[in-house]
Amino acid sequence: MSAISSIEARALATLESVAYRSAPEPLRRPTPPPEPYPLAELGDVLKPAAESIRRVIQAPDAIIGGSLLAAASLAAQAQADVHIDGRTIPLSLWVLSVAESGERKSAVDSEAMRAAREYEKELANAYAEDSEQHAADVAEWEARRDAAKTEAKKANGDGMADNLRKLGPAPPVPLLPRVTAADFTAEGIFRLLSEGRPAIGAFTDEAALVFGGHGMAKESVMRTAATLCKLWDRGELDRVRSGDGAAKLYGRRFALHLLAQPVIAERALSDDVLAGQGFLARCLLAWPEGTAGTRTYQAESLRDDPAVQRLATILLVRHRLALPLAEGQRQELAPRALVLDADAFAAWRTLHDTVEGHCGPSGRFAQVKPWASKTPEQALRIAGVLTLLENPDANRIGKATMERAGELALWHLNEALRLAGTAELSPEIRDADALLQWAHATGRSTIYSRLVLNKGPSRIRERDAFQRAIGELVRAGWAEPIEGGRRLDGAHRRHVWRIVPANEGR
């Protein structure tokens, strides 16, 4: 390098250093790290299985805990309700877990839902046999009906009504053998609960199917959210349509677990309808830090793990329990009552009053009042699920279980508080943040448009999205355009930007 070239290089470095003397503005409010997930509070059935899944799959604790709680709720929700001061609280839990691709959400979901999927196979096999028997029963019923009509016609119709009443209605069709649904609409859930089992769940490791599907489209999201909220609250649904009249369903239960990537979760959290209808506030939120990059291969099969096998067996037994039905009904549930003993009630009341005391204008939970207002009820639901896991015949919730459930509910409330403000970010800011994080993670002090469009974050690999994102970085002082471009990666690049290192932006 010539002396002149050396001087020019030092001058350029000096200019770049001067350009970065003013610290850039933050793009978003710094999000504090999550608190450790209280895995120990899951109890004697879920905790050992959670520890085994963590050891082998090595997913974030909150993903494991949320998956197991949701699967347990699906298995237990039909059997009992919590009764407290004249109110009936279903055991249905809704969980929204957020993690990047590669955080092994699907692997955890597969283990948590093993029993439910096995039971669904059993129902499908039985449904095939029942359908054959139903066809034969209907043929016999129709023959008897036709004979009754023929006999009555010979007597000028006398006795036809009595004969048909004695014959009774046609044999009912077998219930649809569904335990879960992945992609759904309000109408689809209504149909499934009308024609199938009265206790089901929406479980998917691809929440984009839900939040990006027809049920959550702009014209239908309000109806879907309102429908689901009624199910969570009271286990009831009603529908009025000009074509098929009015119908109302009672005694239904609906659990839910949506595993989402951040880009999908951000859209959901920023949806005013989902927030305003209370759908999100009914969800136990979890957005843990990832474990990718820290995992070593474990040569171990969870199919042979005693704790995971025990959990699968217990959940399968709970699924197979006879449904407690209202008298004369084959789909309306009448779950038995679970009550709190005196010590458990005292613990729950302390939780209730403590959370409520922090909901005022200057309180800790002022920003997340919708979630805070549901937390005492969430604790009751979790306590009921944990109780039935350990004793399927239980009718009382003890203090220790109530305290564990309270810790779990409070963790999710604090998680909602930690994430407060995420919904307020514009897509441009989220894209800019993703671009900056990518540049820092890959150690790039300069970037150019073609590089980002080919190798950058997937959410900004379109030119318009990239231009908006880089514009936000320039305005905030995190990026500076290099006039005239620069030669990089073997070619002259026209559109080049310097990126402020992370340690200079503190």
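That was protein one. Protein two is written in the same sequence-then-structure order:
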Amino acid sequence: MLDLAIIGGGPAGLSAGLYATRGGLKNVVMFEKAMPGGQITSSSEMENYPGVAQVMDGISFMAPWSEQCMRFGLKHEMKEVVRVSKKDDVFEILLSDNTSTLAKSVIVCTGSAPKKAGFKGENEFFGRGVSTCATCDGFFYKNKEVAVLGGGDTALEEALYLSKICKKVYLIHRRDAFRAAPSTVERVKKCENIELILNAKVDEVYGDNSGVTGIKIEFNDKSTKDLAIPGIFTFVGLDVRNEVLKQENGEFLCKMSEQGNVIVDLKMKTNVAGLFAAGDLRLDASRQVVCAAADGATAALGVIAYLEGH
């Protein structure tokens, strides 16, 4: 039986693994079906982590984390978790291959995923001109014109990244002001090949067998605009990944908010003894790497205290 099962391998999960193993737990496994790193690995620019002065991409930033965590005994199993349930004082971790393992405690750090924008043609052309990762797909649009949809930090940072690759970037936002950090907004406004399209939304993406060939934009005053471009990158928010906590009867293992976030206290404890949640999954998460890492460390310390009391 595991002392601790960590579900998810982003900054919260890795930090939890580091603090749990360094804190003395001997049998700790992190379940992550992909390589560890989390959503930040798709970011083109990481510049606000305290103590890391060098600006780098997300993959380079996260590369040392796994090595550091594994050094203290954290094990990584590249398996997908389907469900976490609890019977008496023991948690059962059901995996996608229909096997299961038992654990004395669990930290769920499954994070979040890019939210769909909801325009016509989004699903049809996803991966063929519609993308949520500029780092992954930006190269395919070298010296071409593309659009970015969104008004937060991620949207503006990715627009800046694409501006270095693409001939022109159209930044589309439904309001006339951005939610991003003022310094990022200023950089975008000074970038010569980024054109702002404000008070507007993407109504439709269209194309042919080769992929996207254009997008239709509708402004708040109901006027329209057609852009003949081969690609659009959407950054309109995140959906939490809470599926592993849903039980066979459709209810969740622990208390959740109306938005689907896990309700925790300041120590990342849920209302279920031995179950903790950290990172974007939990209520009121800041959605910042430094905060997710802190959550993971806090949860791990909570697990150590919980196990000592049992």
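The first helix runs from residue 11 to 22. Keep this in mind for the problem set.
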